[in-house]
Automatic annotation (TrEMBL):
<comment type="similarity">
    <text>Belongs to the binding-protein-dependent transport system permease family. FecCD subfamily.</text>
</comment>
<keyword id="KW-0812">Transmembrane</keyword>
<dbReference type="Pfam" id="PF01032">
    <property type="entry name" value="FecCD"/>
</dbReference>
<feature type="transmembrane region" description="Helical">
    <location>
        <begin position="124"/>
        <end position="149"/>
    </location>
</feature>
<keyword id="KW-0472">Membrane</keyword>
<keyword id="KW-0813">Transport</keyword>
<dbReference type="InterPro" id="IPR037294">
    <property type="entry name" value="ABC_BtuC-like"/>
</dbReference>
<feature type="transmembrane region" description="Helical">
    <location>
        <begin position="33"/>
        <end position="54"/>
    </location>
</feature>
<feature type="transmembrane region" description="Helical">
    <location>
        <begin position="192"/>
        <end position="211"/>
    </location>
</feature>
<protein>
    <submittedName>
        <fullName>FecCD family ABC transporter permease</fullName>
    </submittedName>
</protein>
<feature type="transmembrane region" description="Helical">
    <location>
        <begin position="161"/>
        <end position="180"/>
    </location>
</feature>
<keyword id="KW-1133">Transmembrane helix</keyword>
<dbReference type="InterPro" id="IPR000522">
    <property type="entry name" value="ABC_transptr_permease_BtuC"/>
</dbReference>
<feature type="transmembrane region" description="Helical">
    <location>
        <begin position="6"/>
        <end position="24"/>
    </location>
</feature>
<keyword id="KW-1003">Cell membrane</keyword>
Amino acid sequence: MVWLPVFAIIGAFVTSLVISLLAWKNGVTPMRLVLVGIGVSAAMGAVVTLLIALSSESTSMTAYIWLTGSVYGADWHDVTQLFPWVAGSLGVSLYFSRRMNALELGDHTAVGLGVSLQFTRMSLLFLSVLMAAPAIAYAGAISFVGLIAPHIARRLVDRHFAVLLPTTALIGACLVMLADVCGRTLFQPLDIPAGVFVSAIGAPFFIFLLYRQRF
């Protein structure tokens, strides 16, 4: 378990590198990155499905729970193992907060302010991998936390990323905790994984965001 975040980061870095290389064409644009990422994600999902189909029943059940996302059985030992990864990556991300503020103004303005566009984007991409991979290694693939939490944080605090980043992290943690409490108490004696409740909230929220983009 001690080495689990390390191997999660290695796998995530390799996948991100493949996505970046496939999306590279005189630089990387967010749209190409998203489209290539969707394709690579579908391919990885097929590999995971194949591995589950070839595994034993007990291993398959464990894998399904992890894919849904759950913090069942977590203890303070897990917290102490995960804390250095979270604290370190969050500290590095705060170093990039000024550049992220500049990117919010648009590519041309950011370049005019002296931001190295492609270097900053690639650094932030791999930094996001460093932040996400250890958390997913321990808690599983809890979907939509990274989508819901930033939008809630933007409505509560200033858009400056030095304030927005820690606020988003705290809101994401509260969402997972609330989902876990609901999963443990609402359907007793069943224990529903937290990822189910996060997805139940995140999917309508995602549709709402897409609907707003129409206007």
